[in-house]
Structures are given as C-alpha cells and as structure tokens.
Amino acid sequence: MKKLILFLLFISITCVISFCIFKVKLPLQDQPTHQVTSKVKPLDNIDNNEPLDKQTKLNVDEFLKSNHFNGNITIFRKNKLIMDESYGFKNFENNIKNDNHSMYLIGSANKFLTGIMLRQLEEEGKLNLDDNVNKYIPDFQLNYPLTLRDLMLHQSGLAKFKPDWSQFGLDSSIRTIKSTGIVPSHYRTYQYNDANYITLAKVIENVTHKSFEYNLKHRIINKANLKYTSNYDSKSHEKYFVSGYKNINNQNIYIQPNNLDKYDGAGNVYISTHDMAQLVSKFKENKLVSKTSTQNLLSLPDQGYYPSSYRYGFYKFKDYERYRGIFFANDIVTYSNDEYIVTIASNQLYQPYKSNTENMLKYIYKQILHQELKQK
C-alpha cells in the first residue's frame, strides 16, 4: 500500500510539472525579435475596454523608449491634455533628469511668437505690413524699398545675419543688419533669414515703446497663461533650462549657447513642450488674435493671402501646421491640426544629425495618431 501511494504521488507531481512547462512563456532571449516601429501597437487593434487616449499614451511612450529618446513630449487632443512626459536628462554632467518643467531653447519657433505680436499690433492699428520699414526704424534701408511684409515672409533679401561678438543687445543686431544691407539677387525672393525677425522685434519695440521682453510677457506669456516660458536671461527660470548636447560616438558634447542677446524675435526664448503646445492651442482657439486673424493665418496658399506655406513664423500645410526651431543642440517641433497638437523636444542630438526629433514626431503623428501629413 505504501508503495502504491508513493507511485501515485510521483505521477501527480509529474503531471503538474508538465502542465506548468507548457504554460510558461519563452525566456526573453527566445522571443521573436522585431523592428523598433513594430513594437508600437496599432490603434485599430486596441482593447475596446481601454480609453483611446490612454492607449495612445502607452503607444507613444513605448515608441520613444524603444528609440532611446531623451527629451519631452506633450500631446493635446481637442485642446485637452492627454500626455505630458519627460525622458532622460536635461543635464548629463550633473545627472539632472528631465521633468515636465524642462525648458528648451526655442530657436526659430520663436518667430511664431514674434509673428503673433506683429498681428496683434496690426489689429490695434499700430502698424501696417505694407509700410516701409524706414517708417519704424529710420534710415534702415535706403537703396531698396522694403516693407514689413517682406520681412515677415522672408523675402527682404537682407544678408544672412552674423552676430557681432564685440557688441551687445538688439540694437547692435540692427546696426549689423543695416551695415550688411541687401543681397540684390535675393531681393523679393524667399530666403529664410533670422535678420528678418530680429528686425521685426525692433519694429515691435519702437511701435510699443516697450522692450521686446516686455511685449513677450504681456502679449504672449500672460495671454496664453504660460508658466514655463521666458527670455534667455530669466534668473527665476534658469533652473529649468535644459543643456544641449551633440552625441558623437556615444559621447555627449555640451554645446554652450552664445550671443543670445542678439536674437530677440528670432530664437532666444526658452519654453517647455507643454507651454508650446498650449500656446498653439490658445492660438487656434482665437485667444491670441481675433477669429478673423486666426482664420487668415491658417488659410492655405491657394486662397491668395500668402504666396507660400510660410507666414508669421510658422508653416501652414494642407493637413497640418508646423512650428520648428533648432538652436545650440536644442530641437523643438510642433505639429497641429483640428484634432491633435503634439510638441516634442530633445536636447541630445546624435551626429550626424538627420532631424531625428522631427522624424519621431512624424511617426507618432501618422502611424500612432493616424493623422495625415500632406503638405499640398
């Protein structure tokens, strides 16, 4: 009897072990491998019991982590915040991690802020885009007729801006721009140039009799209720500024910003991804300029208001708007339409840099959010 009991016990244990073996998943190293993008679960296969916005966040998070993304991302859907996440470090030397307050040097996306201020002053009747620049900056350009519209559309022909290290501030930039003058072959043709919006910053100062920084605070920051947006020299926000790095052969090389004092209107503002997305949201909700102005600025080129997709510091394409700036190894880019606003920013740019940050945004926008990105 004792032997029979032992035999039956042995058979039972053997069956349990066999059952468990078939139920256990393969070890990770034996799992099938995939391309990075195939890790993202298509939204049309989501669990019906899981909210769409939650699944979107999970997909975006998995995609960014799989690409070793270092930076921040913010997503608004129908003007409602659905994602605000940070990854990696804002300062590698001191192991300071990015958080939701991380602020990036905005670069050329700064021109959108300048463009909004310009439009506000138009609405207030304080300037006219068809006026000669000399009306607002005496003796600015005497050889060629030049209007504020030419500056706004980057068709002034002004020589490419090169800051003078020996001087300081916006006024020094204007002296440099005046002295280098216009390149005849570029006059009245589209040539992207910081000089245009630096000059518009000075026009804004002269029209309002206030500094560009004052206008930034009262016309943009306060109106859009931005908490983590400031001029480059704000002591109260300095602790939130990210450091920019170029990654060369897996070594992070810090890129020190310089001459920011000379880029009013064109690139010296720091902003969080949340604030940038919120700014675009407020713009599209007619909170920064009138509804008529918003509709005008968001019109397509074939409607005749603007000769190309570029106007007032941003691009309006068929399916979306684009706001982008890259400066001193800070890359920030926003796409928006009537459904989504997505801002992504990185301060670790792998070299040679091939617009990796914007490429990630394109994937997220099209493959995860299922939004069109046709330009024409």
UniProtKB/TrEMBL annotation:
The keyword Membrane applies. Keywords: Membrane. It comes from the Bacteria. Its main location: membrane. GO terms for cellular component: membrane. InterPro entries: AmpC-like (IPR050491), Beta-lactam-related (IPR001466), Beta-lactam/transpept-like (IPR012338). Residues 70-350 form the Beta-lactamase-related domain. It is found in: Membrane. It holds the Pfam family Beta-lactamase. PANTHER family: D-ALANYL-D-ALANINE-CARBOXYPEPTIDASE/ENDOPEPTIDASE AMPH, PENICILLIN-BINDING PROTEIN 4. This is Fmt protein. It comes from Mammaliicoccus stepanovicii. The gene is fmtA.
